[in-house]
Design brief:
three-stranded antiparallel β-sheet; single chain; Rossmann fold
Length: 287
């Protein structure tokens, strides 16, 4: 039943009871769907967007959900937990957009590139639609859809096939088999987590195997990972840090993490989240 905030009761105790009811509904909805938007919760509860945002702040502070831009996602730190595509797409949108722009700037006409599944690589796809004579190999239905919608006679898109994961990656033996004989100029890979000990990781064992096949298909691995991925360890490793030729991240990384990454990776690109048209990235290179 919708709970309107237009006729709030005068009794403070009743107000607290209504807030608790809303919080229970919100948490249940986030757990059921993995992610939910402010506008959807406002409609469900019959309250204003502002009321929902206040509720999400309370629930975020209590550790029950993660408040993100435009909504909330499920909070779960297990190494085997794999959020769905919608949940991940609501997280760190500004950083992901900046990283996607920086990654697209590395693509040149005539190249054959690989793009793994993920929300940041999906954003990247929108920024390469006008690059001529590209061959794109991907295990992401979302990436393939973006490229197919922008039709070009000089572009080839190869979708690997395979079993579909919660994050919309096609994985498994079919995907790995499609990649084993390929030689790509660059591979652009999204990750669930990165750390000095575990390298680049994912919570999905089959996705890890498929992404390792992508890594083996190139000498030039570009990893796309916003600062929240640092210190997160998924169940399975895809590549050690030093395997990446380029890491594109953002300025939210701690200084110590930046320094450590520069020791292992030849080129670290810090994407500019201010989205200046004239200067979208800052780079730090290992001497």
């Amino acid at each position: 039943m919708a709970m309107s905030d237009d006729t709030a009761p005068a009794d403070p105790g009743a107000s607290r009871a209504l807030a608790r009811q809303r919080h229970e509904v919100i948490v249940a909805e986030v757990r059921r769907r993995g992610a939910v938007r402010v506008t959807e919760l406002a409609t469900l509860l019959g309250v204003s967007d502002m009321t929902v945002r206040r509720d999400l702040e309370v629930l975020d502070e209590a550790g029950l959900v993660d408040k993100v831009h435009g909504g909330a996602t499920l909070r779960d730190e297990r190494t085997s937990d794999e959020p769905g595509f919608e949940a991940k797409s609501l997280r760190n949108t500004r950083e992901k957009h900046a990283i996607a722009l920086a990654a697209a700037s590395l693509v040149r006409p005539g190249q054959a590139i690989g793009i793994t599944a993920g929300t940041t690589t999906w954003q990247m796809a929108y920024h390469i639609v006008d690059i001529a004579n590209l061959t794109v190999v991907t295990n992401s239905v979302r990436v393939a859809d973006v490229l197919h919608q922008s039709r070009r006679d000089d572009r080839t898109v190869v979708l690997t096939g395979g079993v579909r994961t919660p994050s919309d990656a096609l994985v498994g033996p079919v995907a790995v088999g499609a990649l084993r004989s390929l030689h790509l100029d660059s591979v652009f890979m999204g990750v669930h987590g990165m750390s000095e000990r575990a390298g680049f990781t994912t919570p999905n064992l089959m996705e890890a195997e498929t992404n390792r096949a992508f890594v083996d298909a190139t000498e030039h691995l570009v990893v796309l990972a916003d600062h929240t991925k640092w210190g997160v360890t998924g169940l399975s490793s895809m590549a050690p840090l030093h395997r990446a030729a380029v890491l594109i991240t953002d300025g939210g990384l701690p200084a110590a993490a930046n320094a450590m990454l520069e020791e292992h990776i030849g080129r670290v690109v810090l994407a500019d989240t201010s989205f200046s048209d004239d200067d979208t990235t800052h780079e730090r290179r290992r001497a």
